[in-house]
């Protein structure tokens, strides 16, 4: 492997000059810089990344803090996978790479000192690795750790969880507005008995989507029934179980807003298993616009989040802080209602046969 010393000897300059060409090119005269760069290309030389990290006190690595414990299903959610692809693409275009800092609370990882249960130690580890910044993904129980990261001064951007600090901000969609629009759409079709399948308690997007459901019902002048609000966890199984509970009511809903497409698909399967037709007997709206939403039968009406813009906005905020900009205001991205085939008017549902549960 070609070394910086060999490039320096061939160019007739010092090793320090070669280092400045690749780390602080503005401090080197144009003729010298061009000569070093030409020789480096000819020899296929690239500066050692770890040495560059030491000289700059940071690397081109962005740490992704994410609890990937197999007992938690978050890493399997299709929306999150799409979001991460967008984030990776945006960072890569600026020469940065994502390094997964997987965490867990099991005994083995606690012994290794990488558990979010000890956030101060974890902050120290990120500094020892000279990471340029962090992307934080909440697993539902990381509030203390994220507060420590945000207050550490290391550039941090969180996805869908509010953080604040000297170099910390977050990106989220306007979940409440999207949910409210979905409910108003159902009301405009003539539905009055509108239920919701919520996301997990304590999850910020889930809370906002429930608030949006309540706001949409109020905007439409419709009463909210406690037994029409059923908790879920964003995944298909809870959508199926929750929909069965709703269909077992004496007066089942004619429409349901699910806080995720996965739960909406579960609700669709439960309705079909009960002998109901969607949308003739039950209207369903989801949230996220994952790829499969357009492929199920009937195609799912849903509230779309801009996955590409989510990643771009997160990367832009993080890169700005890395370059010593102040922490920007939190980014609130708009949503869009995508109308497909899973919604219809309730006129046929009044005479529909009782579901078979």
TrEMBL record:
This is LacI family transcriptional regulator. Residues 2-56 form the HTH lacI-type domain. GO terms for molecular function: DNA-binding transcription factor activity; transcription cis-regulatory region binding. Keywords: DNA-binding, Transcription, Transcription regulation. PROSITE patterns: HTH_LACI_2. PANTHER family: HTH-TYPE TRANSCRIPTIONAL REGULATOR GALS, LACI-RELATED TRANSCRIPTIONAL REPRESSOR. It comes from Amycolatopsis orientalis (Nocardia orientalis). InterPro entries: HTH_LacI (IPR000843), LacI/GalR-like_sensor (IPR046335), Lambda_DNA-bd_dom_sf (IPR010982), Peripla_BP_I (IPR028082). The keyword DNA-binding applies. It holds the Pfam family LacI.
């Amino acid at each position: 492997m070609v070394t910086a010393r060999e490039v320096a000897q061939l160019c007739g300059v010092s090793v320090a000059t070669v280092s400045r060409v690749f780390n602080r090119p503005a401090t080197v005269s144009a003729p010298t810089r061009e000569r070093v760069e030409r020789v480096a290309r000819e020899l296929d030389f690239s500066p050692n990344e770890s040495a560059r990290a030491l000289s700059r006190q940071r690397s081109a690595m962005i740490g992704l803090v994410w609890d990937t414990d197999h007992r938690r299903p978050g890493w399997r959610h299709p929306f999150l996978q799409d979001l991460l692809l967008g984030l990776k693409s945006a960072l890569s275009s600026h020469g940065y790479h994502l390094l997964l800092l997987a965490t867990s609370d099991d005994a083995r990882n606690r012994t290794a000192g990488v558990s979010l249960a000890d956030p101060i130690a974890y902050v120290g580890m990120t500094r020892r690795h000279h990471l340029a910044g962090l992307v934080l993904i909440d697993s539902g129980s990381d509030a203390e750790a994220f507060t420590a990261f945000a207050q550490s001064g290391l550039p941090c951007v969180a996805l869908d969880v509010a953080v604040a600090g000297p170099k910390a901000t977050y990106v989220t969609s306007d979940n409440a507005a999207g949910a409210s629009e979905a409910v108003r759409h159902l009301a405009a079709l003539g539905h009055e008995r509108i239920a919701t399948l919520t996301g997990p308690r304590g999850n910020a997007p889930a809370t906002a989507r429930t608030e949006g459901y309540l706001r949409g019902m109020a905007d439409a002048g419709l009463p909210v029934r406690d037994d029409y609000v059923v908790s879920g966890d964003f995944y298909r199984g809870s959508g199926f179980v929750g929909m069965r509970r709703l269909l077992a009511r004496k007066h089942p809903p004619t429409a349901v807003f699910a806080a995720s497409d996965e739960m909406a698909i579960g609700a669709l399967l439960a309705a079909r298993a009960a002998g109901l037709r969607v949308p003739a007997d039950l209207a369903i709206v989801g949230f996220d616009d994952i790829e499969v939403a357009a492929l199920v039968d009937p195609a799912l009406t849903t509230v779309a989040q801009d996955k590409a813009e989510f990643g771009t906005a997160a990367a832009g905020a993080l890169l700005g802080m890395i370059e010593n900009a102040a922490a920007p205001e939190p980014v609130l991205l708009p949503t869009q209602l995508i109308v497909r085939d899973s919604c219809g008017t309730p006129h046929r549902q009044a005479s529909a046969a009782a579901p078979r549960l």
